[in-house]
Amino acid sequence: MALQGNLKDFSITDVLQLIGQQLKTGVLRIRQGKKVVEIYFADGMIVHVYSNYRGKKDLIGEIFVKVQLITQEQLERVLRIQKETRKYLGEIFVELQLLTKEDVLKVISTQAYETIYDLFWWQEGEFYFDLKTVEVYKKIPFALSTEQVLLNILRMADEWSEIEKKIFSPYLVFRKTQEKGEGSAGGLALLEGVKERLTPEQELVYGLVDGTRTVQEIIDRSLFGRFNASEILASLLDAGMIEIAGVLTPSLMTRVRTINLREILSVASLAGVAILLFLLLAYLRPDFFSHLLESKIERVEVEVPTHLIQKARVDRIKNALEIYYLETGTYPSQLENLVSAQLLRKEELFYGKGIAYQYELRGEEYLLKH
Known about the structure:
This protein is α+β, with helices and mostly antiparallel strands.
């Protein structure tokens, strides 16, 4: 079965659905520029998902360290064992009884869903399905129904806009409503009644709300992923069990290089040598400076290549977008917001003869071109 093409012609939904319905085994590889995603199938079931663009913080071991389920020393020990045995990292965690099978499966599932959800927004990209035998996790059986994944992804895409209106920043901080010290006994009784009907997942997220943790920290600690944790927070907010306590916007830190005394002395000594050479030259060749002063310097017009100017302008806009993201927790809906935030001048949004740069916000990413 030769299945290959471009996402311009076939959506990722169509491709996954075809592989799942035909119960194929192999690897689907999707490339967009430098980004690569690989989805492994066994009899039409998704058994592994890999992406090359997620950072170190998204590796399974780093996730467990971040949520304090294991220590950095334990992770390093497991990595050494993995290097010797070539076993899957999650299997080693379970074998050493550092983590439960459920914890490992939760993270694997979350990573798979979030990577495929990202793919859902790709408008273009080359894909190729390679029919081949795929190794599955033996001690931690993991398999997702392709049909169920697609249904959940479509639901996520459909509901996210409403969730985002309530959970509009990863830096939001929530607190439990009774923590204000207000409210009647009847109101508290109503809250207790709602608590009794919470699912285990909702109870876990509710327990993480403490008036100090940000939404991102709750997402990380719950291991539920961005969509599921945000959905639960939104439901708790609707139920009146939590409320916004504030926003913790990360500060923009400027790195200042410290110059020590040794560096200062080194520069001073070099300057001293230069002055001595200068004076020696003046003594031996007094006519040198007269020639230097009499020499004519011709002005040369240097034309900077247009593509370098355009690149500098685009880089400036990208830098402004990143600063805006750090300050607000999201990219702007339009470039004009960068002007309102005093990150750019209005004329910097245009190139050529007053033609504006094209900007489009796509989920957590953006497209900028001219």
